[in-house]
Each structure stands twice: as C-alpha cells, then as structure tokens.
Amino acid sequence: MNDASTTARELAGGASLRDVLGQAPAESWPALDRAIRELRPQELGVHVAPAGRWLHWLWNSPLPVLRRSPRSRPQSATVLSLCHHDGRIREAALELTPGSPDLLPLLIVRCTDWAAPVRERARALLSEVPAPALAPGAELILLLARREQGRFAVDLLGRVLREGPAAQVEALLTSPDRATRRFAHRIAVDRGLLAPGRLARLAADSGDASLQDLCAEAAVASMRDKDHDDVLGVLLKARNGRVRAAGVTALRRTGRHDEARARLTDRSGVVRACARYVLRQGGTDPLPLYRAMCAGEVTEPGAAAGLGECGDRTDAETLWALVQHPEAAVRVHAVTGLRALDAVTRTGLAPLIEDPSSAVVRAATRALLPHAAGFSREWLSARNAPDRPRAVRVAAQRLLRAAGYSRPTG
After folding, report:
1. Which pTM value belongs to this model?
2. Which among 25, 116, 289, 367 counts the fewest CB atoms within 10 Å?
3. In the predicted structure, residue 44 carries a pLDDT above the cut 70
C-alpha cells in the first residue's frame, strides 16, 4: 500500500489533514486525490464516531449529508468530499474551502478537475484567495500546470506575483522546487527586481542551466556603465562555461574587444568560440594568435583545441606534434583540435588508447569511434583484458561495439 493510500485510510478514520500530511510535498496532493477516490466503502472507518458516521453517510447518501450542517462535520469529511468520485459532491464541498488554509491545496487541485462545473467553481474561489496565501501554493500550481486544465492557476499566480509586493517574489527565488525557482526568477527579471550585479552572481552560482542563461542574459542586458566591472568580473570567472560565454560576448557590447584574447584558450569550446567572435568584431583575426601559441612551448592547453576549431588542414601537422606533448591536458585538446579539422587517423591516435591519462584515453576514443571498423577484433580484445586499466578496457569495449563485433566480455 503506498503512502497516499495510507493517508486516505487515516483520513477516512477521522484523522485531521494537518496531522497526516503536515508540510507535504506538492505531489502528495494529486496522489491523495486519486487515493481517496479508490477507497472502498468498508475502509470508511464507520466504527469511529462521529467522523466515521459522517464519512459513511457521505459515501452512501452524499448530497443530503453534505448540505446538512456542513460546518459541524469533521475536516476529514470535507477532505473526502473534495475528492469524491461524484462531481456534485466535489462541487458542493468547494463551498467549505474559503477561510480554511489547510484545504487550499485541494482547491488548487480542483481547478484542474475534469468536470467543468467543479473546475469553474474552484477557479472562482481561487481567484478570491488573498495574494499572500496563494504564493505558498506555487509548487503545486506549477506541478499541475502539466495537466490539460492546469493553465488557469499558473496565470493567476503569475498575475499575483507581478502585481504584488516584491517580497512575495523574493521568497520564492530560493524555493527547493526547481520549477518554482525558475518561475520566480522569470518574474523577478520581468519586473526588474534584481540588480545587474546580483543577476550575474545568481548566474555564476546556479547549477540550473535555465537560470544560468536567464540571469546572465538579464545581467548583461540591464547593466549600465557603472555596472560593467561588477557584472563582467563575475561572469568571466564563473565555473560554468555558458555563463563565462555570456560574459565574453558582453565584452563586445562594452567595447572591450581585446580582453577576449585571454579567453581564446578557455577549457570550454563555446567560450573559445565567443572569444573568437568578439575579437573578429574588434578587427583581430584569432588564427595567427592560435598559431603563435601552438608553435612554441604550449602553456595554455586550450590553444590546441582553438587552433583546430578555426584553422585549416595545414595546421594538422602542428596538432599531431602536440599529441605527444608531456602535459595530458595539451594532448586532450590536441585530439579535440584534430577532430575539429577532420584530420583524425586511426594509426595516429590508436596509441593514445593506452595513454596513462584517462582523460586522454576518453578523448582519443571519441575521436576513433568513426574509425572503429579499422581495428581488428584481436587488437581491441587484448586491450579489454582484465589486467588492463579500467579506462583502457572501457575504450576497447566502446570500440568493439562501434565496430560491430560481438558483445565484449570482461
């Protein structure tokens, strides 16, 4: 028996909603709604007085019981009425929800009811709920937005947050629910509630790609001259590549094109691409810069990848030399550059399958997958032996599959 079924049985026995659910997560309410409809008559706790008698009567002669002294009956009977299989009962029970905060989640659920009369009455009542009381239901409202009839409550919530005090939006920015955080941040950005510097920090600190993009773009769009150092300083130092890329692109807007040189060797390909774009917009060709960085002692591993990304086939020789570089990061980026130039050869990269660096092994494997058919089964199977390092075995297994050989063992 699942938790929702247990909760439904406890309510049928006369327990209060707050006792059995308390601070329940949003998904508990739709689950409870389904579980109550699945209750059997013998589970209605008729041995419990007086709650049991109310529930027993409700299930067997619902409308007269619901309309008779409704305020005197137990809360559990109201809860079951709101989830009753008969739409007439659900609709009548909605009149008991005003002034009862504990019942607000079920009122929200009824706004997506499949029966139009129930749905419309629930929506009318939800529209009368004070704005401060509606915002805490954001997680449930956004969960139910996936339903066919879930848009009404979302639009109502959005209107309340856009027109109400900023503090209501602020309170939802740190919600543990991802959908709620995203919704609140979009409204905060639309309302201009967040300063450019704060937006930049939110983008840099967030682990949510959607919020990273939203906040980084808003920070750049809203910054004024006095905000440039604060915003760009945060974005360019962010851990996430997409946030750093937003900062690099913003260098063009601020006229600081030359600062993109330092990002040509970023570990992220998208950042490198943005840096090349900004430099070109400022009149600088990045290719000679990459060639100069790769011609001597390579101190920035990303230079090898960048050379392949904007060079031509004549640069392959430089990259092949870097495949033997003593620093593993340079070898990884050299392989990335060769892939970008479409200059990979099986014989050239095959030795890297046994490289002491697992990162190099993975990079070489990705590059060699299109060439897997050129390997013999025996050569790959030998590298799938139990005594080989794990990275080498995984590489051999991937290549065996890509080559179409029988499922590898080991």
Report:
1. 0.81
2. 116
3. no
